[in-house]
Write a structure and sequence with these properties.
107 residues, six-stranded antiparallel β-sheet
Length: 107
């Protein structure tokens, strides 16, 4: 079965076969970065526009700054500016992407 890639704005969920063995379950709320907040059953990612992407009803794991979620039954990824997306049962690595502008001076 092909692995899924799901995108909502600047958040990408990439399906993987299993949570890496070195990842630890998240047992309390933690700020992974200043834009990513993870609790035992929720991932909140602040997008570049300041709005939040919210994924609830999942099991969360982390390793260093990586976030992994296990979806036991379909859940919804919500955002104030994007249509809600149903996330099917599976295991995913969650990534926030950022847009960068490269300023170049041309003589």
């Amino acid at each position: 079965m092909p692995m899924r890639i799901i995108r909502q704005g600047d958040v990408i969920l990439r399906e993987i076969k299993q949570v890496p063995e070195y990842a630890e379950p998240i047992n309390e709320s933690v700020d992974i970065t200043n834009t990513v907040f993870v609790a035992p059953d929720t991932v909140i990612i602040h997008g570049e526009s300041g709005h939040k992407h919210v994924l609830s009803g999942v099991k969360t794991y982390t390793y260093e700054r990586g976030i992994y979620v296990v979806v036991d039954k379909p859940v919804t990824l919500k955002h104030e500016e994007h249509p809600a997306i149903e996330i099917p049962k599976g295991v995913y690595v969650v990534t926030r992407i950022r847009d960068y502008a490269l300023n170049q001076v041309i003589d």
